[in-house]
Design goal:
single chain; Glutamine Phosphoribosylpyrophosphate, subunit 1, domain 1; Rossmann fold; six-stranded antiparallel β-sheet; 19 helices; about 35% helix; binds 2-deoxy-2-amino glucitol-6-phosphate
Length: about 600
């Protein structure tokens, strides 16, 4: 959580940092701040609230500088407040820092420094970094940073400025992402690529415990022994347009609408001649007797959908585990297990920990990741990239869809390699997957029924999602999407499970969204719908095999026909739009829902 950015160069750092923070706001948005260095020393502004409030403050009290650091916060230690906002300064006002991560031993460091007379002003763990760096500072900021980092336990990505060394901006990281961007007018540090895309597509990825020393015209890298480290820059292919709203009211809507293109490029990379194809073709699957998929949130739901596809086609057991649970359960994995990590950001702390635990136990790890160069992408044995481009809305849509198609393609490829299906059957399945982008394009031209129905749903206190088999798995994603952006309580149930308890929650005018794309199970899910209607519920049926007719308590939204294994890619488009329009009609901050952050880099 939290986004950090820093700049040193020939232009005014303030607008550059504010613009970068806007593009990092998805990482946290309960407070923000900026510190710049100018000829008078440090100038710091920080406060609780959205970045727009910080911008308003700065427009009334202009500031400028050739170097600066900025922060957008998702509070972990210390409530959102002006004083707990970053940047933090040491008590001698010599060192300013921004921090993304958690310092686990901050209490011990704080006590130690307090005994030596240091006066702390905030409740954060981060302030100890500024105070400790000042304590160690003896005329050499790099040395002070190395000593400080040597004392820190936990995770950090840091931007550091020192009053006595006004030409240097220092960065260091451990277990949280940090990139260095090189533009013609200056050098950047940032938590993520979109923050620098307006200025450069040339970036270095910092590894754990590497230090970057930036000046207006150069960047040098060192290890903790202060030996120089040689690094090669990488060229980012994402365009700045992909990180703009492009005329849409919200990033989420834009990203939903981008799905046909994202699906097409992702399918192409795996079935055409892209890197994904090379990796999938090269995988020796005969050595695996188990597949474990581990991930969080929506990425976990993508894993749940694909479990049905893998098991149906490969006849191999697939377990799907929440990464936050997997890491602590002494998982049963060995060198014959393939552990698949699914993550948009590639920086989710729980998924990283799960990956490391799987590797420690000798399992092969394959990741499906969107952010190039992210920790999971770099550390897993094999990496497949979703071609979603930057995803800004906190609620994932296009990255989820891209994860699904890569998982489908993996499942079909594995089934073919294992001899469970013929080449001809595999080619037919690949052709169906390749048809998804065009079908999604058609669906996105006919969104009126979803939009209209969603507008009638703002008053519900609770909405249930049901489905059977693979429709149940995608119902879980529909439910998660709704609760995260509309703040309406929601749960997903397997249709057959209702009678075992949940049906007691159904009362007059409860809404139940039923997904029906498994034709062989239509009568079963229809009977579940009737059971809830007869207890006063209303039902919104979304599917491609519905024989019922709409009525006072039954609304139907049709989906195009497709193999049931791939139908979740279609149902999810209307489920996303349903949530989007419910939230839009409630007037909520859709791209930045309360209490959430897109990239959960803390435990
Ligand atoms: C999805 O809409 C959520 N914002 C969230 O559940 C997300 O999928 C989860 O935090 C995992 O993130 P990752 O894909 O970046 O690992």
């Amino acid at each position: 959580m939290c986004g950090i950015i820093g700049y040193v160069g020939t232009q005014n750092a303030v607008p550059i940092i504010l613009d970068g923070l806007k593009r990092l706001e998805y990482r946290g948005y309960d407070s923000s701040g900026i510190a710049v260095m100018n000829n008078n020393g440090f100038d710091v502004v920080k406060q609780k609230g959205r970045l727009s409030e910080l911008e308003a403050l700065i427009s009334q009290r202009p500031m400028s500088g050739y170097m600066g650091i900025g922060h957008t916060r998702w509070a972990t230690h210390g409530k959102p407040s002006d004083i707990n906002s970053h940047p933090h300064l040491g008590s001698q006002n010599k060192i300013a820092i921004v921090h993304n991560g958690i310092i686990e031993n901050y209490r011990q460091i704080k006590e130690r420094l307090e005994q030596k007379g240091t006066n702390f002003v905030s409740q954060t763990d981060s302030e100890v970094i500024a105070q400790l760096a000042e304590y160690y500072y003896n005329g050499d900021i790099v040395e002070a940073v190395i000593k400080t980092a040597g004392n820190l336990e936990g995770s950090y990505a840091l931007g550091i400025m020192c009053l006595d060394e006004p030409d240097r901006l220092i960065a260091i990281k451990k277990d949280n992402p940090l990139i260095i961007g090189v533009a013609d007018h200056g050098i950047f540090i940032a938590s993520d690529v979109p923050a620098v895309l307006a200025h450069t597509n040339k970036v270095y990825y910092l590894n754990d415990k590497e230090i970057a020393v930036l000046t207006k015209t150069s960047v040098e890298f060192y290890n903790m022994d202060r030996e120089p480290v040689h690094k090669e820059p990488e060229t980012i292919t994402w365009s700045i347009d992909s990180a703009e709203k492009g005329g849409y009211e919200h990033f989420m809507l834009k990203e939903i609408m981008e799905q046909p293109r994202v699906l097409k490029e992702t399918v192409q990379s795996a079935l055409g001649c892209g890197d994904n194809r090379r990796i999938i073709d090269g995988l020796d699957v005969s050595r695996f007797n188990r597949i474990v998929i581990t991930a969080c949130g929506s990425a976990y739901n993508a894993g749940m959908v694909s479990k049905y596809v893998f098991e149906q086609l490969c006849r191999i057991t697939v377990e799907v585990e929440l990464a936050s649970e997997f890491r602590y359960k002494d998982p049963i994995v060995d060198c014959n297990t393939l552990v698949i990590l699914v993550s948009q950001s590639g920086e989710t702390a729980d998924t990283i920990a799960a990956m490391r635990e799987a590797k420690r136990k000798g399992a092969a790890t394959l990741s499906i990741v969107n952010v190039v160069g992210s920790t999971i992408a770099r550390e897993s044995d094999y990496t497949l990239y979703t071609m979603a481009g930057p995803e800004i809305a906190v609620a994932t849509t296009k990255a989820f869809s891209a994860q699904l198609v890569l998982l489908y393609i993996l499942a079909v490829s594995f089934a073919k390699k294992l001899g469970k299906i013929t080449k001809e059957a595999a080619d037919n399945l690949f052709a169906e997957i390749a048809s998804l982008p065009d079908i999604a394009t058609g669906m996105l031209k006919r969104i009126d029924p979803v939009q209209k129905y969603a507008a009638t749903c703002v008053g519900y206190k609770s909405i249930f999602f049901i489905g059977r088999n693979i429709d149940y798995a995608i119902a879980m994603e529909g439910s998660l999407k709704l609760k995260e952006i509309s703040y309406i309580h929601s749960e997903a149930y397997a249709g057959g499970e209702l009678k075992h308890g949940t049906i007691s929650l159904i009362e007059d005018n409860t809404l139940v969204v039923a997904i029906s794309c498994c034709e062989r199970l239509y009568e079963k899910i229809y009977s579940n719908a009737e059971q809830v209607i007869s207890r006063g519920a209303k039902v919104l049926f979304i599917g491609n095999c519905i024989k019922a007719v709409p009525g006072e308590r039954l609304e139907i939204i049709e989906l195009p026909k497709i193999n049931e294994l791939f139908a979740p890619s279609l149902s999810v488009v209307y489920l996303q739009l349903f949530s989007y329009y419910v939230a839009a009609n409630k007037g909520l901050d859709i791209d930045k829902p309360r209490n959430l952050a897109k990239s959960v880099t803390v435990e």
